[in-house]
Write a structure and sequence with these properties.
The complex is a heterodimer of chains A (111) and B (118). Chain A contains no helices and eleven strands. Chain A is mainly β. The N and C termini of chain A lie far apart (41 Å). Chain B has no helices and eleven strands. The chains are: A mainly beta (111), B mainly beta (118).
């Protein structure tokens, strides 16, 4: 059974700083997803990582996947307040498209 | 393009009462999902439909939860009777890809229904 763990669960950082969120998963995952959730809002898809070594970037966010280590990272560069949100990683298994989510990382970017 | 629509946005009920949630997926999306998100946790899949057939309902508490997707479009999720531990946000999502197709699958989520059971 696929299990997904994220750390840290809470992250408070200053504007302009860099940081990384880690996502470990327990067994082979077909693909790895990153979602963003603002308070009271729906989940928004950020990245889908399909294969080992995949790297995707959008603005100040960059996601990568290491399938051998069963690890995905979400790197934040020069954080701004607008990035404050909860970020979830999720894996899928067995081709069924069933997503297994981590508990999420609540990011707060302070001025 | 309209997103996934859910209603109601909020619902407060007493334990042992029943409640129903409604979801209208993105037009043309064949796959529909219901997730339960308890405060402080990630969403957990309850049931997955492909058109009007159930693909996965292994984590649906079938003694109290039921879901249907008549005509392969809208879906309803019902809880009867509700328990205190059912307090959560119920999220509906849809995707255009089919399970086991091997295609990249992006699930689009609705804003959710926040249920409080007192």
């Amino acid at each position: 059974e696929l299990k997904v763990e994220q750390n840290p669960l809470f992250l408070s950082m200053q504007e302009g700083k860099n940081y990384t969120i880690y996502c470990n998963y327990s067994t082979t995952s077909d693909r790895l997803y990153w979602y963003r959730q603002d308070p009271g809002k729906s989940l928004e898809s950020l990245f889908v990582l399909l294969s080992n070594g995949a790297v995707k970037q959008e603005g100040r966010l960059m996601a990568s996947l290491d399938t051998k280590a069963r690890l995905s990272t979400l790197h934040i560069t020069a954080a701004v307040h607008d990035l404050s949100a909860t970020y979830f990683c999720a894996g899928s298994q067995g081709g069924s498209e069933k997503l297994v989510f981590g508990k999420g990382t609540k990011l707060t970017v302070n001025p | 393009e309209a997103g996934v629509a859910q209603s109601p946005r909020y619902k407060i009920i007493e334990k042992r009462q029943s409640v129903a949630f409604w979801c209208n997926p993105i037009s043309g999306h064949a796959t529909l999902y219901w997730y339960q998100q308890i405060l402080g946790q990630g969403p957990k899949l309850l049931i997955q439909f492909q058109n009007n057939g159930v693909v996965d309902d292994s984590q649906l508490p079938k003694d109290r939860f039921s879901a249907e997707r008549l005509k392969g479009v809208d879906s309803t999720l019902k809880i009867q009777p509700a328990k205190l531990e059912d307090s959560a946000v119920y999220l509906c999502a849809s995707s255009s890809t089919s399970p086991y197709s091997g295609s990249k699958n992006i699930q689009y989520f609705g804003a959710g229904t926040r249920l409080s059971v007192l």
